[in-house]
Amino acid sequence: MSRQANRGTESKKMSSELFTLTYGALVTQLCKDYENDEDVNKQLDKMGYNIGVRLIEDFLARSNVGRCHDFRETADVIAKVAFKMYLGITPSITNWSPAGDEFSLILENNPLVDFVELPDNHSSLIYSNLLCGVLRGALEMIRKLRYAANA
Amino acid sequence: MWRTCIRDPIPRSQSSELFTLTYGALVTQLCKDYENDEDVNKQLDKMGYNIGVRLIEDFLARSNVGRCHDFRETADVIAKVAFKMYLGITPSITNWSPAGDEFSLILENNPLVDFVELPDNHSSLIYSNLLCGVLRGALEMVQMAVEAKFVQDTLKGDGVTEIRMRFIRRIEDNLPAGEE
């Protein structure tokens, strides 16, 4: 159902609560559809991936961020620009691996979970797993978009 | 899965695109789950209702809006405060009925549909129907029974998106709203 965004107007700013509750409705629906948490986690990741491959285009158009030269720059852009833009929060970056190929994003507040308590029978559910898919999809598309631009 | 929210007091604001795409994922999932558009519309309305009965609490806490004395004030608050707060847009209010119990919200831009095109086989889908449920659920919690429905939709080729709001009756008893 998706097409290229045809928005001539500037981006709209909103409070996060309606998004939070809509995300909750999505997770609840998936929990009804799938028998176990693992399948819900996978579906959230897949949905997130599909979102990420579209969101990156909007991000690049609006953020004016140039090419990142290394993974450390990428981490900075993710935490300070992307999370801020789309979730209104700025995670901190910690725990770099010696090789510089792994790091952690620490979210003091996660808007997706503002109203949420996991029931006991969903202990394996990774409630916010959509975000992992978004990150994966968006970053995968960067490589493809850059390749296309240079071709 | 829900509990009363204890949020940090600093209001966060975000751009709408992640929300828009997440909403799209929700509608897509419902279209897989239900065989026909009518059932998806109903489910969106029901989900919206469950969201609305919770969202109103946040709205009242953060907006400092006092009690509305009539439906015209309610319309103003919905358009200028609530839509602005949660969707970043301000619909205009038009087409009041002579009795003052019906009006239209005209949305020039609907953030929910920013990336969306309805396929031909979903011509009966009311894509943004979650919003009607939200309005219905939220207003029920402030003792107003209303009907909300889309009468025009840019996704279907109309020039604007129009939500028709109709006041049904005041709810006198204060029993907590059950989830549908």
TrEMBL record, chain A:
Subcellular location: Endoplasmic reticulum; Golgi apparatus, cis-Golgi network
Gene Ontology CC annotation, any one: Golgi apparatus
Alphabetical GO biological process terms: Golgi vesicle transport
SUPFAM superfamilies, per database record: Ligand-binding domain in the NO signalling and Golgi transport
Primary location: endoplasmic reticulum
One Pfam family linked to the record: TRAPP
UniProt superkingdom: Eukaryota
Keywords in alphabetical order: Endoplasmic reticulum, ER-Golgi transport, Golgi apparatus, Lipoprotein, Palmitate, Transport
Subunit structure of this chain's protein: Homodimer. Component of the multisubunit transport protein particle (TRAPP) complex, which includes at least TRAPPC2, TRAPPC2L, TRAPPC3, TRAPPC3L, TRAPPC4, TRAPPC5, TRAPPC8, TRAPPC9, TRAPPC10, TRAPPC11 and TRAPPC12. Heterodimer with TRAPPC6A. The heterodimer TRAPPC3-TRAPPC6A interacts with TRAPPC2L. Heterodimer with TRAPPC6b. The heterodimer TRAPPC6B-TRAPPC3 interacts with TRAPPC1 likely providing a core for TRAPP complex formation.
Function: May play a role in vesicular transport from endoplasmic reticulum to Golgi.
Family listed: Belongs to the TRAPP small subunits family. BET3 subfamily.
Protein name: Trafficking protein particle complex subunit
Organism: Neophocaena asiaeorientalis asiaeorientalis (Yangtze finless porpoise)
Automatic annotation (TrEMBL), chain B:
Function comment: May play a role in vesicular transport from endoplasmic reticulum to Golgi.
Protein name: Trafficking protein particle complex subunit
Primary localization class, coarse: endoplasmic reticulum
Gene3D superfamilies listed in its UniProt record: Trafficking protein particle complex subunit 3
Keyword field contains Protein biosynthesis: no
A GO cellular component annotation in the UniProt record: endoplasmic reticulum
Assembly and oligomerization: Homodimer. Component of the multisubunit transport protein particle (TRAPP) complex, which includes at least TRAPPC2, TRAPPC2L, TRAPPC3, TRAPPC3L, TRAPPC4, TRAPPC5, TRAPPC8, TRAPPC9, TRAPPC10, TRAPPC11 and TRAPPC12. Heterodimer with TRAPPC6A. The heterodimer TRAPPC3-TRAPPC6A interacts with TRAPPC2L. Heterodimer with TRAPPC6b. The heterodimer TRAPPC6B-TRAPPC3 interacts with TRAPPC1 likely providing a core for TRAPP complex formation.
Gene: TRAPPC3
Pfam families noted in UniProt: TRAPP
CDD domains according to UniProt: TRAPPC3_bet3
Superkingdom, natural source: Eukaryota
GO biological process terms held by the UniProt record: Golgi vesicle transport
Compartment(s) of residence: Endoplasmic reticulum; Golgi apparatus, cis-Golgi network
Keywords: Endoplasmic reticulum, ER-Golgi transport, Golgi apparatus, Lipoprotein, Palmitate, Transport
InterPro entries: Bet3, NO_sig/Golgi_transp_ligand-bd, TRAPP_component
Family note: Belongs to the TRAPP small subunits family. BET3 subfamily.
